[in-house]
Amino acid sequence: MSESQAQTDIDLDPVTFEVLRSSFTNLVDRMAEQIQRTCYSFVIYNRDFSNSLNDAEGNTVMQGSKDIAVHVGTLHYTCKETLEFFEGDINPGDVYIVNDPYLGGTHINDVRIMRPVFHDGELIAVTQSNGHWADVGGPAPGSFNIDANSHFAEGLRIPPLKIWDAGEFREDVANFMTTNMRLSEDRMGDLRAQAEATRIAEERLLELVDKYGVDTVMTAFGESKDYVERIMREQIRDLPDGTWRTQDYIDADPNKEEGYVTVDVEMTIDGDEVHYDLSGSDEFIGNFLNATFGTSFSAVIAGTKMFFPDVPLNSGMYRVVSADLPEGTVVNAPEPIPVTGSVAGAYEKVMNAIFELWSEVLPERAMACAFNLEYLLAGGTDRRESREGEEFAWYDWMAGGWGGRDGKDGANATAPVFGAGLAVQSLEGQERDTPLLTSQHEIVTDSAGPGEFRGGCGLRKGGRMLDCENAVMSYCSDRSRSITWGINGGLPGIPHGVTLTQDGEREEMGTVFSNHPVSEGDEFVRPSSGGGGFGDPLERDPEAVLEDVKDDYVSVERARKDYGVVIEAIDPDICAYEIDHDATAEERDHIRDNREDWLREDPDAVAQRYRDGELDELDLIRRYGVILDWSTGELLERTTEQFREMLGERAESEWEQ
């Protein structure tokens, strides 16, 4: 359905409607510019924020054009919950604050500021700003505490509060909150920056009311939502009815024996509506990788929206797309179950599962699994001469590879799917603010999942602690075991995880830990996976593999093992390589004849060959489908069984016999 067709059903004339609809987008984007220029937090400065214009009932009229995906769908619920909480006591000049993840939110670091907008004494809208605060208290700097067994051990949970009451700033309330957070001055600065953004949006909205009249603007609110609903229904109506189902996985539940935690997603298209049923997902787990209802609904909307990029986003889409998210599961954990790490856990698993489902319905837009979001955090006392005695909080995320696509390789070194609008943080800015030095930041050779169209490449980032005191480090990620997977015959990427070197001793720390002591001279490094591959790697053009070798995306060894392309290195210093076409044909035949048997070899024997140095990590993952505890070399029997089953469904079943 074209935009011109969609506009034929509106009450406003098309020109006025389009001007106002665009004005709403501009209004929200102006909020973003205000926040980025006045925030105190380096995290928010790098665009971990979002904004919205909501109507008087809390429905989203418009979200920003550069908002990150994880906030999609949650601002709607947060606004409704807050309006309900203050019903009967909502006044001009009020400003509200809330971070409660169980009231339609995400996690406690996402702090929402809301301002009701009045015209002639009547509530007409709410302007809302959401920013990820780098710390909201709790025992771990950054408030990512893997040891938490409830939200009480994560940080300060803020129910709906008035932070401005009829125009009067409640400094006592603000001080109470920020005093319980690290770098409280920064937190107060972010609070004021977000509040000012909502004020600017209020000012701009009232200018539109003065120009066009309140009735016209309110009509445009309703028509903007109806417009999105109509476009979405038309596009869904053109698709075949049916039900599709898949699963993705979190590495493990620490309270149970090893084995994946299942995130089960069933999608049904019925006429002009889409419904997701996640009731097959496992129960909530014993760490903070669980998601709340708001987080998982956000993943459903964001995952769907990726396949309908031309559809604007507001509450009109929520009339077309619905979800069943049973309470008590990993995708809808009840209070007080910890959920701070949800975006690295259940959230992105829902998104990637939805990518696979829509890849079946819209194969021309198909995409394999993307790398997993990860956060590395450190905090303590800065002892550098320029910042002697100051508290510091280093909060870092990495780019990585997205999945291979139908007809195109995946995107290299880009933002995680949870936050496609995130910026890669400036290393120089980080080094100025914190006693950490970045020692490396480069693309990881062989990180991309092999396929006819390979995944995008991941990165490796390393650093060293400088002069500091009482410093600790925490890490939040996943997919050390549920490794980024391919589709249509494509193969996986590489495991996530941090390696820490202290006093010359190297230790594999895995993907989740909190408050590990670190000191000056300690070094760390972690990779991000590339995206999963799309299509059979043996069908990739050998010339494309050769170019990947020249670019250091693929090594000569893995070109042979993963793609069956035999390449001779003539002079690597000048990128002089040559394909041996006869040897390539033989190698590809050899792989075709043996790869199904490799996936059925005795896992214990394969693990022993790894420990003996005969096989490497990628041999186990991509050829034999064997998963180990990478820090000890111990075979994970149940995980291996599940991983092989996944490879059978997504890769082996698609290979040409």
UniProtKB/TrEMBL annotation:
MF annotations from Gene Ontology: 5-oxoprolinase (ATP-hydrolyzing) activity
One GO term of the biological process aspect: glutathione metabolic process
Any one GO cellular component localisation term in the record: cytosol
Limits of the Hydantoinase B/oxoprolinase domain: 13-537
Pfam family for this entry, one: Hydantoinase_B
Coiled-coil zones: none
Disordered as annotated region, ranges: 513-534
Lineage start: Archaea, Methanobacteriati, Methanobacteriota, Stenosarchaea group, Halobacteria
Name assigned to this protein: Hydantoinase B/oxoprolinase family protein
Origin superkingdom: Archaea
